[in-house]
User: What shape does this take?
Amino acid sequence: MQYKTGLRAYTSKRIEEIGSADILIGIPCFNNEKTIEHVIQMVTHGLATYYNDKRCVIVIADGGSTDDTREVAKEFQIKPWQEKIVSIYRGPGGKGTALRSVFESASRLKVKALAVVDSDLRSITPDWIQHLLDPVLSKDFQFVAPVYLRHKYDGTITNNIVYNLTRALYGKRIRQPIGGDFALSIDAARFYAEQDVWETDVARYGIDIWMTTNAITQNFRIGQSNLGVKIHDAKDPGQHLGPMFRQVLWTIFSLMERHESYWKGIRGSEAVELFGYEGYVEPEAVKVDANAMIEHFKTGYQQFSSLWKEIFCEHCFKEIVRCAESETKSFLLSTDSWVQILYELAATFHQWRVNRNKLIDLVTPLYYARVASFVRQSWEMSSAEAEELVEEQALKFEEHKDYLVKVWDEKSVHTEKT
Assistant: This one.
């Protein structure tokens, strides 16, 4: 079923009653009854502190929560001069549809700027609202991505995949390309709302990286805002991140095909202007079990090594074999090997026209190998020191960009011949 809008009739009516506004804050949520009140409280205080002369609307875009998320959101009292809409969005389940409803609401209210914040945040403060909105309202930025002070083991998909690929492919050093908290100008929100992705897997699984990639390829004025420490419902990479790895990688590779002519000509990268919080606090620790991840990898090797041998070049596969045969205490899948693995995987994804999800399932154990290696490399480091390791890794992705183009083109030719 095709949905022409993400808004239900009662939400549209509320928007009509409000008429227009200056600022909209969207909060996508699903079963967040424990955290939603705190997030709304910080949003309403932030708007009151920094934008009390503006007409402000808070939109809670719920995915049909089965707990009391909506009831808690409805009962919480915001400042009397602000408006609040609590709605269940229309369309396929997922954050993408929630954002569609937020973008459409902003467009109909003709706001000057909007921001979106996650509903599971425990560290959000009223300052976040200013840090996100100010670059849009005062400096004419169209897309503001977040920068967080995160523990070295929070955000392993970003640190080992998404930051590196986004930077190397598209030439912009956007540190959190899949951060859940961001701000937009109204023209950017309208552009996103009008795109034909809302019924697709991109909207279900990869909306954050889709937005960031489009912001770059559409030449939006992009800024970043440091929001300080991010504390949310963090997940142990060994336990929960396999599905996220598959979803994010599938989206990145799909976007690579769509924007091939854009990224192929880019070499190197440029910094993106940074605003916001200027202090430093050591973030709350995230526990990881590197040994369990190594076991995940070794089990995967026993199951899939014959297929990996077909997918990866001889040198790459030798490195994988070496890791599989090494003891836990000396385990290391090097950064150079990881770059090669990801680039060859992107080219293979491009070559395969069927069973692409299966391909990414097959290589998930290699992701565990890389995260375990990163954990081992950074075990004695502070989060700030580990950040330097992330930067070194990103530079290697840039330096090997020619290799990506080479294997991409070779596999494309092979596909045409077959």
Summary: The longest strand covers residues 222-229. Strands lie at 23-29, 56-62, 83-88, 113-116, 143-149, 172-173, 182-185, 222-229, 270-271, 274-276. DSSP finds 17 helices and ten strands in the chain. The chain has two domains: 9-276, 290-417.
